[in-house]
Amino acid sequence: MTKQDFQQRMEQGILLLDGATGSNLLKAGMPRGVCTEQWIAEHPKPLIELQKAYVEAGSDVIYAPTFLANPISLKSHGLEAETCRLNETLVHISREAARGRALVAGDLTTTGKLMEPLGEMSYEALYDAYREQIACLARSGVDLLVAETMMAADETMVILDAAASVCDLPVLCSLTIEADGSLFFGGSIYEAAEILEAAGADAVGCNCSVGPDQLEAVIAGIKDRVSIPVIAKPNAGMPRITETGEAVYSMNASDFGLHMRTLAQAGARILGGCCGTDPSYIRAFKKAVASL
Predict the structure, then answer these.
(1) Which of the four pLDDT bands, split at 50, 70 and 90, describes residue 114?
(2) If we measure between CA atoms, which residue out of 270, 292, 276, 279 comes closest to residue 105?
(3) Cα radius of gyration (the chain)
């Protein structure tokens, strides 16, 4: 899919993303503390079943589980040399699950390290790491790229630069925010959205952090600042942490669907679910936004 193809697809109406991956794989038996990408590569069945369920529920796009499959993040598991193998394997698994009925996105995220001058991570080191991962994803046949759960505009711009150097795939950028729209590493989602559109992002918005009930004003504010599609992929409300350390989210699928309809009316054109959601949530908000 080229950037022009993506623009044409968005002219047809709302695009539905998938829901959470990690929390559902934990329920399916993935141990805590392992390298998620390596575990999925060795145990593909739970992911295939989950992603098939998302497609059946109505997802137009599923995310290949390449979230932390960049060489900087993989180094913490001693797997940086496996970057291409893991990305190619994980994309293949998601393509098997999609079977041509949904687009497959190559998923990228923050390394969690601040860039210079606030931190030790240089532009060049980040650029090389993201470029390596994106090149592997492009060769593996992803339809688009998603930079999600980003914490600052500057690192997201490195992903856009790296992507532009190796392919013409559309890049969707979503940042994690506070309920008032502020970013965790400084600045606001509104400023970031304008910067990222100017840098070549094909869509921009937010994911994770909070529930959809807290995002109506944020989504409307982003919509007022940009001309590209706006993304909303929130959590299933706010979590309660149990005695065993498990996060239990407060919002059921039906209520989630109704709040997602409100976000669509506020200007979101690309909708999905993050932590605490599962295929029932996608099914619920697909029904809720059908008339839009």
Answers:
(1) confident
(2) 270
(3) 17
